[in-house]
Structure formats: C-alpha cells, structure tokens
Amino acid sequence: MTNCAEMVFPVVRTAGLDGMIVTFGDQLSEPANRAALAFRGAVQQQDLPGVCETSTSLTSVYLRFDTDQLRHARLAEVLQDMLAAQDWYGAPLPSGRRFWRVPTVYGTELAPQLGEAADLAGMSEAAAIDSLSSARVRVLTIGFAPGQPYLGPLGHEWNIPRQTELTPMVPKGALVQAISQLVLFTAATPTGWRHVGQTGFYLFQPDADPAFALRPGDELVFESVPVADFHRLCTSDPLRGGATAQEIRS
Amino acid sequence: MNGLKIIRIGPAASVQDLGRPGLLGQGVSRGGAADVLALAEGAALLRQDAGLAALEISGLGGEFEATGPLRIALTGAPMDAAIDGANVPWNASHHLQAGQRLTLGSVRKGNYAYLHLGGGIQTGEYLGSRSAHLSAGLGSAAAAGDLLPVGKDTNRECGLVLDPGSRFHGGTLRLVESFQSALFSAEERARFAETEFKRGTRANRMGVEVLPDGPGFAAQGQLNILSEVIVPGDVQMTGDGKPFVLLRECQTTGGYPRIGSVLPCDLPIVAQASAGAVLRFQWVTLEDGLNAQARFQTQLASLRGACRPLLRDPAGMADLLSYNLIGGAVSARADPFDAGGDQ
C-alpha cells in the first residue's frame, strides 16, 4: 500500500470487506468535489450488476457491492477504465439538481455568533451578511446526520477554524459556518461551528415523501430577510420556512 | 390486534430488524440489530424469516403480557426468563397463552438480549425498516404501556432450543486493511495486532471503546484528514489514541483515522463483549476475510437444522408438582400439533 503523502489522485482503494472508494483529492476543492459528484452520477448510470449502493463524501465516491456477484479485481478494473475515459475534475455536474432560495435571518438573538464569525473573517457584520447572503453554495456532501448538508465552498476569507469549545445547543434549521463551509443543521445539536444564520428549512422529515429535501449537487442561496418576515414565513410554511426550489437546467 | 403488551421495561430496549441499507448517500447508516447472529437464531427457532423485527433489550429486562396466544423466542445475551413465574430456558422458543406474563431479568453476560415473536413484531416502518435509530430521529425506545403488535404467524412449531454461538466473553476480531490503514506505519499496525484490549465502558449501538494494555495508536497527520465514509467494523482512533470499533448504527462519515475494518461476521463479538472482556485483533487478507464471511453466511443458513426439541430439566421446573408427568403416555393418538397439548 502506498503512503498517503505520495498518493496520486484519483485513487481506487478498498473500504472494509465489501466496499471500494474512489478518491479525487486529499483537500476539499471545487474540482475534486465536482469530480466525485460527476463520477457517482456515471457509476449510477452504469447500473453495474452487484453494486448495492453508492454515496459521495467531500472528494470521494464510495461503492458497496455484493462480493459474490462482483469480484474486487473486476470492480477495480471497471472503475479504472471509467477514470481513464475522461477528465472528471472538469466534468459537468449530474442532471436533476435544484437551486434553492432559503430565507435566512443573519445575526440577532436568533443567530448570535454572526459578529464573532465576521470578526474572524476580517469584515463588518454588514459586509458578512452581504458576503454570505450572496454566495451560491453547493451541497458538497450529505452526512453526519440524516439529510444534513455540507455546503460550499465559500471564499478563503471564510476559512476560519472551528471553536475549541462546543456551543451547547443550536436549534434545528441553524446555519453554521467554519473552514470555508456552511452546514444547515437538521436537528438541534451541540457544535463547534459558529451559528451565523437561522432558517425555517427542515431538511429531514421521516414521515414525508420524500423524507430528504436536498440531494448532493443541489445549489442554495441563503437570502437575508428581516426577523418579522422570517417569523411570518415560518408560520405560513412550517417545514420549509419559505424556501423555494427550481430545476437547474444543465 | 394481537401482540405483547409491555408492562415494564428497562431504559434501553427498542425494536430492531436488519436495518435500512442503501441510505448512506443521505447520511443514514444501516443500523438494525447490534447482534445479527442473535436475530438469525430467533428466526431459526421460530422457523421464520430472519428479516422480521424483534425487541432488542440492553442490560435490564422487563415484564410482558400476551394479549392472545403467541410463540416467542429468546436469544442473545442470556437473562433469567420466566413465564407466569416458572423459569424457562434461554435460546429457545416457547408458547405464551393469552394473559400469560413473561418476565426477563438483567443480562447475565453479554449486552443485547432479543425477544422474538412468531410472525415478527409489526410496528410501523420508517424509511423501509422497523429498526429504531434514535440518534437519527427514527422510531422510539420501547416503553411501558406499548403494545408490540405481532404479524400473522403461519407456523406452530415451538419448544426448540439452539446452542448459542459463544460471543459473550470477548475473543479475537479479524480485520482487513482499509483505505486509511496506510496512515498508520507498518510497525503501528503490527503492534495493534500484538496488543491486548479490554472492552471499555463507553459503548452503545454506534460503537464500542476498546482499551489497549499499552500506549494508544496514532496516525501520521491525524488532525488534517478529510472527513470520509465510515463502514460498520471500522476501527477509529480518537484524539487520545483510543480505538473505537464502530457498529452498524455508526455515523456515515467521520474525520478520525481508521486503522482497519473488522469483518462483519465478528461484529456480534464486539457488540456482546461484556465490560472488561479481553479482545484481540488479527489482520487477515481480503481473500481470507471473504472466506470467513462466506462461512458465517453458511452457518446462519444452517441454524434451522441445528435446532432441537427442548427437553425440560425437572430440576429447573419450579412448579414440578403441578405437572401431570405421565399424562402424555395415554394419548398416543392426540394431535401433536395441537397447541393446547404442548406443555
């Protein structure tokens, strides 16, 4: 096995006894995330007999497969052939993605850490709201909790570290920020990320169909709204807080 | 609806089946029974499908009342079990008549006991499974007053027993190298397999802490690795170098480096190891791992044939004098499948 420091990407490796993982980078970058999303789309389209499920992380595609039906060596060969067939880092993103506009309150008592995050990013609160509310971010991956997206990448000025102390609890729908990314929490949780915005957009409803609002590759803008409008939207649209979606034409 | 009513129950019991594979991409791990061998044993004892749901009970048992005639099986970590006060054997199937009460004590060894119903427990499904996954907000813990509804029971065979596979005292866990193993030096990986571990106290359905008898294990560049997919069995090193073996309800991604991945067939040993039990790790090749997993699948398939009729030990029968011990001898033509004739 090669040392990770010398690794050349993309790389195909085993994951546990019945999985394989294709990794496009050891750092998060837009091209590496794009490659992962596009490659997973292509794997799904291939519909290989024996592949049970696929998922993406920030820069990788994971495949779980039936080892009776598909041998490791054979799957590795198929994946290498697919990798060699095109430049995945510049590939178009899969179709079926949506663009969401999400009404968001920045700062105030609803999102009390905006000021702290703005300081660390070296800008005023007003400039931070302008920056965050105009950024069109992508669902880089979904994980950690059901339906919970990692969003980005934001500009380098937002590459601020996580807090060393956890915030004891932020509510469902909280928009939190660190390391050039945003996370929109699907449940109340303690976190080391800073609570910069609050939405009424609930991404995971186990009893609804579909249960999950977002898919990897979807794009979002968190538009700034006044507190009064936010409360009105949460009352009239209790699960989405006024968030709207349209198909992205590819 | 017929079923089993919960009169009282310990704090950590929930309905579990084989879980919900296929939702990793949406951040939902497969979950399901912590000990899939116990789930399969219960299905074999009741002559039914291993995908049916059972009640998983961790630590402290409870008391239950049948609302109609039921077949039950008890598997996994053994508990003292009694029907209307009379002790009944573990890893066996039994009849409950309407109104009869089943009591389960605390686990004597291991962690997870299973109470199976003939026809399976038919609580509601969430995302294609009846398994509670509490951290994901799916389902809820079993509580006093709940009725566990039973599915249609198409079989009447009962009074069977099965030798439990030994998995309650720790043992050797076979693991394969995985995509982050190379983050650990060859010396560190070799030392991992030479180290004796004890099952720690931090353990739940997501993972089990194992404490080395020497220094912890560190990856190179441990703090800078990107969060990556987790598969059940992965052995992750937390910041203090203490390993956790992750189980089926683990998070779907994580940033701690993982030295290797325990074979799925050895995860019941991890889940059922009592606190303080000794565990060791043994590296195996991918090919040996696949062969071991295939043997385990064969073992699961052979459980049905391994069941044998339960011979009751008179010493364990608290109400011995109330039994008509020769009554069966005069009714040679009685229908042996009549549930009413089965003591």
Would you kindly provide a written description of the structure presented here, covering whatever features stand out?
The complex is a heterodimer of chains A (about 250) and B (about 350). By secondary structure, chain A is α+β, with helices and mostly antiparallel strands. Chain A folds into two domains: about 5-90, 2-Layer Sandwich (Gyrase A, domain 2), CATH 3.30.1360; about 100-245, Cyclophilin (Beta Barrel), CATH 2.40.100. Chain A contains five helices and 14 strands. In chain A, strands 5-12-9-10-7-6-13 form a seven-stranded mixed β-barrel, surrounded by four helices. In chain A, helix 3 crosses helix 4 (about 125-135). Chain A is globular. Helices cover about 15% and strands about 30% of the residues of chain B. Chain B has five helices and 22 strands. In chain B, the strands form five sheets. Chain B has a seven-stranded mixed barrel with strand order 13-20-17-18-15-14-21. Chain B has a six-stranded antiparallel β-sheet with strand order 7-6-9-4-1-11, with no helix packed on it. In chain B, strands 2-3-10-5-8 form a five-stranded antiparallel β-sheet, with helices on one face. The longest helix of chain B is centred in the C-terminal third of the chain and has 16 residues, at about 285-300. The chains are: A alpha+beta (about 250), B alpha+beta (about 350). The interface of A and B includes residues 21, 58, 62 and 141 of A.
Properties at a glance:
heterodimer; A: about 250 residues; alpha+beta; Gyrase A, domain 2; Cyclophilin; 2 domains; seven-stranded mixed beta barrel; four-stranded antiparallel β-sheet; 5 helices; B: about 350 residues; seven-stranded mixed barrel; six-stranded antiparallel β-sheet; 22 strands; disordered C terminus
